[in-house]
């Protein structure tokens, strides 16, 4: 149950800024903008979307702090922290669930970032346009040019990952601020083109009256939480590096509520500038006339998406798959398994389905919602924040987390509410486990 990658850290060096930079890259990815645009497409006005974002991201902030505590206090990644709740062997159930979800998102985010690169290439080398046509030059649903962009980013991400967590930390420390600078420049350009008077407040084209808007706003809020449910669940993979829990809390505050509300201006501005609501920032960049702005915007989206893809969807399955067989699968081997698998799921076919964003969020919520309730109840109410660190790494029947044959069947049984939405699943998972644990 032990290897050097899963072992408790002796030196925890990440400060509040490192956590803040982690969330900066997460929010300012192509997927983040597509998601925010879809909230406007629900028919909500800007202030209604703003409230939904604020409530949703506040919930995410609270849950991240709660899930960060056991990993930061003990210096262990998410899979090892799960052993205390599900058993040293039973932990592989929530770990594999998270790992498989990360593989799907890793492929989708790589495809989105490669789309930004293709925009730049076609802007300056229009002769390659036939090779961007999947019907003329394509394979498995992706054009030849699309394949080149996808595999280029796949290799670049693998190189960053292979150099280890210190290199990853340096990359996101750079990517986060760089994205902020460029996005504010791009936002200023969009507002200048549109004019302040033309920035509308109703982008969805639907007007709700009275209490009609409430269920839509609740839906939007739950979608915000569900969107972050993946990185939030395995946030322990990063909070373990925090030099103090206070540093993690400060990083989460600036990186989530403050950061998340600062990035919706570009989407708001696209309607008056281009005459329609554009939810894909890659398309927004592609419509800008100035070549320098196109290059800057597209490369920034690419860097940001690579950053969050590595931390949220590469690091996570690396730990997860290593946990399944610690003696056979190292952290690097686990990450490369996930990267290879992301090619074979053909993520562009998933993403090109118009309903895929919300559908994926629903699946995320239904599968991993109960995990939050179970992990939080177990650590704070059942274990009272006390963990026997050595016993997380032993399969001896006398170990604290051996339970029955290495599995805590009470925790596994509490996963049954997985068919419900995120909030209902999390609540029922917490309630079922609290009752069963007694």
SSE layout:
Layout lengths: L15 H12 L2 H12 L4 H29 L3 H9 L5 H33 L13 E2 L2 E2 H19 L2 H30 L18 H15 L1 H5 L2 H4 L5 H16 L4 H10 L6 H6 L4 H23 L1 H10 L6 H14 L2 H5 L4 H27 L26 H5 L8 H16 L1
Antiparallel strand pairs: 1-2
Helix pairs in contact: 1-7, 1-11, 1-14, 3-8, 3-11, 3-18, 4-5, 5-6, 5-14, 5-15, 5-16, 5-18, 6-14, 6-16, 7-12, 7-14, 15-16, 18-20
Summarize the structure.
The chain has helices at residues 16-27, 30-41, 46-74, 78-86, 92-124, 144-162, 165-194, 213-227, 229-233, 236-239, 245-260, 265-274, 281-286, 291-313, 315-324, 331-344, 347-351, 356-382, 409-413, 422-437; strands at 138-139, 142-143.
Question: Explain this structure to me?
Answer:
- The chain has one domain: Hydantoin permease (Orthogonal Bundle), CATH 1.10.4160.10.
- It is 68% helix and 1% strand.
- It has 20 helices and 2 strands.
- It has a two-stranded antiparallel sheet with strand order 1-2.
- It is globular.
- The two termini are 28 Å apart.
CATH class: Mainly Alpha
Number of DSSP strand runs: 2
Radius of gyration from CA coordinates: 22 Å
Distance between the termini: 28 Å
The number of domains: 1
Side-by-side strand order of the widest sheet: 1-2
The percentage of residues in β strands lies in under 5%
Q: Please state the overall shape, judged from the principal axes of the Cα atoms.
A: globular
How many helix segments? Answer: 20
The run of helices and strands is HHHHHEEHHHHHHHHHHHHHHH
Parts with pLDDT < 50 across at least 5 consecutive residues: none
Average pLDDT taken over every residue: 84
- Stated plainly, the CATH topology is called Hydantoin permease
The computed structural class is: mainly alpha
Largest sheet: 2 strands, antiparallel
């Amino acid at each position: 149950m032990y290897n050097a990658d899963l072992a408790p850290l002796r030196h925890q060096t990440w400060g509040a800024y490192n956590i803040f930079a982690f969330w900066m890259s997460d929010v300012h990815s192509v997927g983040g903008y597509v998601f925010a645009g879809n909230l406007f497409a629900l028919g909500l006005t800007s202030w209604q979307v703003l409230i939904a974002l604020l409530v949703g991201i506040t919930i995410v902030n609270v849950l991240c702090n709660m899930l960060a505590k056991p990993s930061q206090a003990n210096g262990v990644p998410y899979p090892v922290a799960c052993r205390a709740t599900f058993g040293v062997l039973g932990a592989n159930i929530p770990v594999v669930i998270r790992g498989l979800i990360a593989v799907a998102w890793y492929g989708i985010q790589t495809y989105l970032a490669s789309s930004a690169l293709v925009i730049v290439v076609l802007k300056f080398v229009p002769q390659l346009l036939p090779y961007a046509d999947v019907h003329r030059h394509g394979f498995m649903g992706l054009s030849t040019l699309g394949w080149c962009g996808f595999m280029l980013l796949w290799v670049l991400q693998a190189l960053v990952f292979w150099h280890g967590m210190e290199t990853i930390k340096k990359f996101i420390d750079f990517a986060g601020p760089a994205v902020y600078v460029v996005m504010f420049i791009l936002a200023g350009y969009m507002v200048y083109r549109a004019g302040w008077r033309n920035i509308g407040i109703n982008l969805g084209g639907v007007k709700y009256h009275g209490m009609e808007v409430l269920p839509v706003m609740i839906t939007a809020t739950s979608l915000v939480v569900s969107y972050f449910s993946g990185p939030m669940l395995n946030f322990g993979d990063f909070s373990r590096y925090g030099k103090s829990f206070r540093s993690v809390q400060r990083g989460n505050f600036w990186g989530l509520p403050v950061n998340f509300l600062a990035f919706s201006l570009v989407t708001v501005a696209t309607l008056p500038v281009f005459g329609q609501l554009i939810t894909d920032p890659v398309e927004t960049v592609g419509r800008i006339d100035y070549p320098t702005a196109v290059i800057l915007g597209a490369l920034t989206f690419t860097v940001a998406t690579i950053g969050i893809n590595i931390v949220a969807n590469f690091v996570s399955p690396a730990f997860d798959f290593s946990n399944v067989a610690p003696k056979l699968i190292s952290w690097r081997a686990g990450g490369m398994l996930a990267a290879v698998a992301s090619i074979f799921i053909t993520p562009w076919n998933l993403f090109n389905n118009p309903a895929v964003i919300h559908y994926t969020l629903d699946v995320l919520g239904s599968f991993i919602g109960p995990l939050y309730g179970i992990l939080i109840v177990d650590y704070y109410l059942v274990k009272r924040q006390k963990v026997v660190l050595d016993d997380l790494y032993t399969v001896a029947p006398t170990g604290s987390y051996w339970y029955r044959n290495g599995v805590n069947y009470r925790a596994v049984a509490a996963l049954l509410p997985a068919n419900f939405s995120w909030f209902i699943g999390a609540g029922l998972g917490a309630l079922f486990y609290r009752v069963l644990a007694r």
